Amino acid sequence: MSDKNSIIPYSRQSISNEDIQAVIDVLKSDFLTQGPVVPLFEKKVAEYCSIPYAVAASNATACLHMACHALGVGPSDVVWTSPNTFVASANCALYCGAKVDFVDIDPKTYNLCPNKLEEKLRNTKDLPKVVIPVHFSGQSCDMAAIHALSQKYGFKIIEDASHCIGGSYRGKKIGNCDYSDITVFSFHPVKIITTGEGGICMTKEAFLAEKLNHFRTHGITRDKKFMEGKSEGSWYYQQIGLGYNYRITDMQCALGLSQLNRLDDFIDRRREKAVYYNQAFGRNALPFAIPYENIPGESAWHLYVIRLDPKKITKDRKDVFDALKKNGIGVNVHYIPVHLQPFYKKFGFRRGDFPVAEAYYENALSLPLFPNLKQKQQDYVIERLETVLNEQL
Ligand SMILES: *Cc1c(COP(=O)(O)O)cnc(C)c1O
Prior knowledge:
It is built from 13 helices and 14 strands. The chain has helices at 17-27, 37-48, 60-70, 88-95, 114-122, 143-153, 206-216, 250-260, 263-283, 317-326, 342-345, 355-363, 375-390; strands at residues 53-57, 78-81, 99-102, 130-132, 156-160, 168-169, 172-173, 182-186, 199-203, 220-221, 238-239, 288-289, 304-308, 364-367. Strand 6 (168-169) and strand 7 (172-173) form a beta hairpin. It is globular and about 75 Å long. The model has no long low-confidence stretch (mean pLDDT 96). Residues 59-61, 85-86, 88-89, 134, 160, 162-163, 186, 188, 199 line the site of pyridoxal-5'-phosphate.
């Protein structure tokens, strides 16, 4: 188990024979892209989240760009997000010519902190057009609080739910948009279900779904309702804005549809394994914090993140990381604070701007967690981690 060839990854897709057959069926059909499977997949994801509209695209990064555009983000605007995220949550605002700023995280959930958001809103002259809370590791942000602030201060909300299709909040599936304008899921293979590359925007609003649709395909429409003047025939289309080619294919959506059948099972298995870690780590007083759950809802358990306590160990995170890697355990670190990336530092951000996210990053470690992680592998991770932490340098 410890040899390099059988490294236990931090995450991994689960592909069944049914998944494979579903993709083959599309390959043998008339359409590889722009056929019937894309809208069917959109319909099924929308039903799953009990919401009228879903617009699938080539990846979640494209979806975040589409969402910012649909909400009218432009060069005079500023968008706020969490520093504890993948760069795409911030880049989407820059694609629209807007500025980006960050709101520090809660020290326990590692999600965007609503109190810090309120404080920042109270003290700024440059109110955000859009705030993008990121449901870190699969656990929802405090959306009721963030939504209440959006009413008071007049900003829109895009939930970056890349980690948490299948998770829930206040009795409803995440993606239901009760507390946001648009929610985005990712279908990258390390996420909960996969289409290879892929993502989807969820919304309750028909006009937003239309904007997302046009932007995904060059700004083109074939619907007379949106055209200037008359249609010139059934071949006719009009470009009514500037968009991109952000389409997803029927092959990918066939995989997604098939995966959707097992989504709830994936979540159950992720949760079981998270509980197994919690129980194993709870037995011994270990020098790290386990994931903290405090929301009225269920995490989708995309990540199992431990936070080492530097006061209780002689090793630093890098030592622990390297030792586990050497033992064939594919640990990872989520996330390097976005504002500390060289590209973002050019906008004037510096170390110390978001101290909670920075302190969290120094000691964070993501352990392997995915539906097909075997108990034997998990026991090995637990045993190795405890051994590495107990060994002196
Ligand atoms: C994975 C991820 C993205 C980007 O998703 P892609 O589908 O790879 O474009 C955006 N935000 C977060 C928080 C992610 O984890």
